[in-house]
Amino acid sequence: xxxxxxxxxxxxxxxxxxxxxxxxxxxxxxxxxxxxxxxxxxxxxxxxxxxxxxxxxxxxxxxxxxxxxxxxxxxxxxxxxxxxxxxxxxxxxxxxxxxxxxxxxxxxxxxxxxxxxxxxxxxxxxxxxxxxxxxxxxxxxxxxxxxxxxxxxxxxxxxxxxxxxxxxxxxxxxxxxxxxxxxxxxxx
Length: 188
Description:
By secondary structure, this protein is an alpha/beta fold. It is built from six helices and nine strands; from the N terminus they run βββαββαβαββααβα. A hairpin with a 5-residue loop joins strand 7 (114-117) and strand 8 (123-130). Helix 1 (30-38) crosses helix 3 (102-108) and helix 2 crosses helix 4 (132-143). It is globular and about 40 Å long.
C-alpha cells in the first residue's frame, strides 16, 4: 500500500511575508508544485493549512484539507493528521521546501522511516517518511510536551541519507532567500 502525503503549511509565514503555500514560482503555486511531486508516490495527499487559507482552495482539489483554527506549529499539524487518518505511512514535507521534486519522494519511499540529512549529518525533519510503527512514539512525545519534530526523531532509530540533490533539503524562511536561491540555481 502506498503511503499518504502530508504537506504541512499551517504556519503564519511571518518572516516570509505571505503564505508560503500560495507563493508562485514561474506561475505555479507552491501547493501545486508539492502536490505534483508527492502524488505519484502517494495514495492520497493531505494539505494541513490554517482555516483562513481554506478560501483559497475551492473544491474540487487534488488533496484533502486538514484545517487548523490556531497556529500551533507544524508538529501539531502532523499529529492532527496522524490522529485524523490513523494506520498510515506518511511522506511528509513542509511547504518551505521550494526546490523539492518527485525524485525526493522516490528516494524516501525506498525504505521504512527515512529522512534526509544535510552535508554535516544533521537530520532534516520536515522532509521524510514516517511509518505507522513510529507514529505512537511521536504522538506520545508530543503529549509529554515536546514541540520539536527534530528532537523526537533524534530519539528514534531513524535512518538518514544524503539526498540525491542537495537543493531538495533547502528551505526558505524569507522571500529574499527564495529569490536568491532561485537566481543561484538558474545560474548553474
